[in-house]
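Hey, I was hoping to borrow your eyes for a little while. There's a protein on my desk that I can't quite get my head around. The fold is given in discrete form, as structure tokens running alongside the sequence. I'd be grateful if you could look everything over and explain what you see. Here's the protein in full, and shout if anything looks odd to you:
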Amino acid sequence: MPVESLLASLFSFQYSFWLLAAIALMAVLYSSVGHGGASGYLAAMALWGLAPEEMRPAALSMNIVVTSWLLYRFQPYKLMPYKLFWPLVIVSTPAAFIGGLWEIDAFSYHLLVGLLMALAALRMIVSSRPVETVTLPPQWLLLTVGILLGFSAGMTGIGGGVFLSPILLICGWCTVRQSAAVAAGFILLNSIAGLAGYMTSGQSWPLGSGWLMLAALGGCLLGAEIASHRGAPITLRKLLAGVLIIAAGKMILTAF
């Protein structure tokens, strides 16, 4: 495809200003806790009546844009705990592929994921104290969590950050800001794998998705500042709970 045609496809303006504003707002909220924001983007696009074939590749693309910037922004602060990160993602990526092969009925899917998010949010609100002592878990436990979360991410179609972040903080495996870096890397790799599979299958690319990615990037520029060093740990923990509540409400309402 010629460069001119590709650019025209990416930036054909067919979305409303309010949808772009909603995407940017979701990017601010989710990126402030190290998440790509796929569940928020999907909710916004669904409200504006976009077709599923438009939503899926657009959400994955926005995930990649946002988490790539987050990881770049985190570098000067050395937030990534690599001994925690690599065991998780090495096993989660193939597990996510396997999870994507499984089928689950729509009602059970939305209800199950929504309830899991709500329980995680409640736990975060009840225990709002920042992590004081960080303890790295044994390798077998990290690998087990990586496999389970990767499989869940593939089966549910989301990056997996909404499941990973609460586990990291509740178990005391890293600090709040470190959890944002780990979640960003985890989501990035899963999203790249998902989008690669989508493109390999030869499915159509949504027109105008470039504007959505720009809106997500714009919101992420602010969210990354909050996540990297400006937000207090307790504030970030409450923001994470808020993200989980929003995502849980969206999932449960969709079930009914």
In short: The mean pLDDT is 78. Residues 70 and 224 are 6 Å apart (CA to CA). The radius of gyration is 17 Å. The chain has one domain: 3-255.
